[in-house]
Amino acid sequence: MVNPYIPYPVRIDEIKTETEDKSLKTFKFVFINPEDEEKFAYRAGQFAELSIPGLGEIPIGIASSPVEKGFVKFTVFKTGKVTSYLHSMKEGDIMGIRGPLGNWYPWDLLEGKNVVIIGGGFAFTTLRSSIIYMLDPENRKKFKDIHVIYGARSPGMLLYKEELEQWAARDDLNMHITVDSTDDPEWKHHTGFVPTITEQEAPAGTEDTYAIVCGPPVMIKFTQPVLDKLGYTDDRIIMSLENRMKCGIGMCGRCNIGKEFVCKDGPVFTLRQLNQTPKEY
Fold this sequence. Notes:
Shape: globular
Strand order of the largest sheet: 10-9-8-7-11-12-15
Number of helices: 9
Number of strands: 15
């Protein structure tokens, strides 16, 4: 039996600063033992614990996609003791990854459907995993129209800028990038909050259309009524409660919402499922 508390040893292969305030960095890890990469078989939407011996661990959504081989990526927001230490680490340093954890987006259900991805801020990490997965040449034909609506406070706070421009240039993806505000005269995308752009650009909700929503609570709060207005039923709105992830295996009891343990039963839920829980998300 595999001990779920023991992380796989990994080496930091590359570090990229994502935002102008340097609060978000993407870490590319490679497994020290090649067989551990096979054991770390994950699906787009899952999480892992980044472990630093003697300091602690943090739950972070997996930003890389299962179709990307030889490494795994995480985008980390500098916000506490563990994340601050991780931001100080260098390429070549060794640490641990425990997982994969939680469930994932229902890809079998989404095949043959239109998919609208709505994300804001740091929560776009696991949505990158999903976009890369759907755009893979072997997978793109499995989905109908794909819309992506992604927003940040300003252009300098957007993640994965090079990929965003590549996605915007594709003719098989409807990419809608927005910022809350900017005085950049060369800004060529939307200006406005994510819920507003969702109302303007998202397709109407039909039985063939699903929305995946992941973002800060305030974004989710104001996006949900927009999706209601567009005709999305609660069973076709899929959310990821990544901010509730804790130990990852349902032992600490700190992630629960009512009877649901986000670490084990989620973090992915439909809005219909969440409507049967206390409004704590």
